[in-house]
Structure prediction request, 276 residues.
Amino acid sequence: MGRRVSQAQGGITPDSIGRGYSATATNYDAAVRYNIEGAERLVAAMPDIPYSRVLDVGCGTGVGSLAMAERFPSVRQITALDPSEGMLEEFRAKLAGAPGVEVALQHAGVDTMDVPDGAFDAAIMTMSFHWFPRKSEATQRIARALAPGGIFAAVLPGKGVDEEFRSLLAQVEPPHMEFLGSFQAAPRSLRQMEGYLEGAGLDVRDMWIERRLRRSTVDAYLERMRVVAGHLGHGMDPADLDAHLTALRARMEQAAGPRGFEYEFCKLYAIARRPG
Prediction:
């Protein structure tokens, strides 16, 4: 007999992602401080050139845009887009104090963004690329938005991220295939990312994977998952979801040692340039 699957029909869409992140937007920064640090390290690694017009794709609460405005006084215009209205509200509050920066927000995903070709000196993505359903097409669209000489910079989950959690997730019965499929498909290798960038006509300047050992309480880890991947459970029956999370929590508590639940977190950083 086959395994019963706890999975909502219809899969993941930009709308479902937007609703999920809107529900957790006010908790995002507190739950993902390592993502904030990653955005800051990405921006710190970008070439030191005078960026004026910045495109922030999947902008979230604005951590990448804020880092750009703080590091580069040349930034004058930021166009930021996200499918989550809640995230855009957080972004608006965070960037309100950036002096001399004009901010334009779009409630849109990468597939529906309304931006002109060749208009931006930089395009950034901070932990949003892994949710794009058509990654090659998304990279090509962003590349077209760059002016000649413009810089593409992204940080995203790298191969090996959260493998310990994924192993426990696979042991829970019945399996939640939307969870499993998303965590298996999200990470990218350096070669995969190189393929997307070169396929979009960009010249790779630098790429690397940062691998760190993390320790967390089970509660804090599951809170991070609720904030960044809550949309994956929205289609489940609430009772099934509660039972699944209870079983998952029990496995995590069994696996946790005296210093908490240990896992490896891998971030992939990519910086590329549009020729010209």
About this structure: Residues 1-10 have pLDDT under 50 and may be disordered.
